[in-house]
């Protein structure tokens, strides 16, 4: 199987990267794009995905923009040419009234983006489970990236069946008491409704000493969402870094998603440089797009 090192990839793609970046530049002062318009950078990228036989789309976890408000998060998401956004409550509080949620979602959609999910949402009480599903339903979201306490899983399953909204349980790495690894999630949900599954955070997965590509092979239909990132070490102390600069074999992981016909969203959660995330996020997005286009 052909392997692609970061150095080889950058050397091959340097010329094309400038064109992709130029095509992806969006005039934020222009009128918002209608919901069904994919924008100037999306069509070439869609063609590349088709060539790679990808069934999933790229998105962003708005936690990436945690130091900024909702409008800035929308603008930065659009600027790197991503269309799908998973909202963290820092941008749309879980306690928001239905009208506030609808207004925020309308603003997001008018900018040409899709608020496909929310999270990470912690659920330690029955009230918090109910609130999470009400919030997602009000926003027209189809997945909750959540962390429910074990005893709340039966209630969460009932809410999934009632609403049709998926629950993707997030693995949080070494030190987490509930779901440190993808296997700790899969073991808990294996006999539940298939719409309860895993949000695979590949950074925390690698920090736990597990290869995320192998997890994809094991997940079957339980992989519902992905957090794309990279880390400096495959240990508890591994920290966030631009995708492609760390220890995760990103090409292998992306090939695994394609091979297994993953149909969800792979969202960048760039945790480095919280006050200035755009350079690192743009580099990460460009690297992943280049890898996918080379398949």
Could you characterize the architecture of this molecule?
- The protein is of the alpha/beta class and 295 residues long.
- The protein has one domain: Divalent-metal-dependent TIM barrel enzymes (TIM Barrel, Alpha-Beta Barrel).
- It is built from 11 helices and 10 strands.
- The strands form 2 sheets. Strands 1-2-3-4-5-6-7-10 form an 8-stranded parallel β-barrel, surrounded by 6 helices.
- It is globular and about 45 Å long.
Question: What layout of secondary structure does this protein have?
Answer:
Blueprint: H1 6-24, H2 42-51, E1 57-61, H3 70-79, E2 84-87, H4 98-110, E3 114-123, H5 126-138, E4 143-148, H6 153-163, E5 166-170, H7 182-189, E6 196-201, H8 202-207, H9 212-219, E7 223-228, E8 230-231, E9 240-241, H10 250-259, E10 265-268, H11 278-294
Parallel strand pairs: 1-2, 1-10, 2-3, 3-4, 4-5, 5-6, 6-7, 7-10
Antiparallel strand pairs: 8-9
Short description:
This protein has 295 residues and is of the alpha/beta class.
Q: How helix-rich are the residues, as a percent range?
A: 40-55%
User: In this structure, how is the largest beta sheet organized?
Assistant: 8 strands, parallel, barrel
For the largest beta sheet, what order do the strands appear in spatially?
1-2-3-4-5-6-7-10
SSE order, one letter for each helix or strand: HHEHEHEHEHEHEHHEEEHEH
Judging by the overall fold, what is the CATH architecture? Alpha-Beta Barrel
Distance between the termini: 11 Å
List segments where confidence is low: pLDDT < 50 over at least 5 consecutive residues: 10-40
Query: How many strand units?
Result: 10
CATH topology: TIM Barrel
CATH class: Alpha Beta
Q: Which structural class best describes the helix and strand composition?
A: alpha/beta
């Amino acid at each position: 199987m052909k392997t692609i090192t970061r150095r080889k990839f950058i050397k091959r793609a340097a010329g094309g990267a400038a064109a992709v970046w130029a095509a992806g530049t969006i005039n934020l002062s222009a009128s918002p794009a209608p919901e069904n318009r994919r924008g100037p950078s999306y069509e070439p990228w869609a063609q590349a995905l088709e060539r790679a036989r990808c069934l999933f789309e790229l998105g962003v976890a708005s936690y990436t923009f945690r130091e900024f408000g909702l409008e800035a998060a929308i603008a930065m998401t659009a600027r790197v040419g991503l269309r799908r956004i998973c909202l963290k409550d820092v941008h749309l509080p879980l306690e928001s009234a239905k009208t506030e949620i609808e207004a925020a979602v309308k603003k997001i959609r008018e900018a040409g983006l899709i608020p496909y999910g929310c999270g990470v949402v912690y659920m330690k009480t029955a009230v918090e489970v109910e609130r999470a599903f009400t919030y997602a339903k009000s926003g027209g979201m189809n997945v909750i990236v959540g962390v429910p306490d074990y005893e709340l899983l039966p209630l969460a399953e009932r809410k999934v069946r009632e609403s049709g909204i998926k629950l993707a349980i997030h693995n949080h790495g070494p030190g987490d008491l509930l779901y440190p690894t993808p296997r700790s999630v899969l073991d808990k949900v294996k006999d539940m409704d298939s719409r309860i599954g895993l949000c695979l955070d590949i950074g925390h997965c690698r920090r736990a000493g597990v290869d995320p590509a192998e997890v994809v092979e094991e997940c079957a239909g339980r992989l519902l969402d992905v957090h794309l990132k990279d880390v400096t070490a495959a240990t508890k102390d591994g920290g966030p870094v631009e995708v492609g600069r760390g220890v995760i074999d990103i090409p292998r992981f992306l090939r695994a998603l394609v091979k297994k016909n993953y149909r969800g969203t792979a969202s960048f959660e760039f945790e480095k440089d919280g006050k200035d995330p755009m350079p690192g996020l743009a580099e990460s997005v460009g690297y992943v797009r280049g890898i996918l286009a080379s398949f």
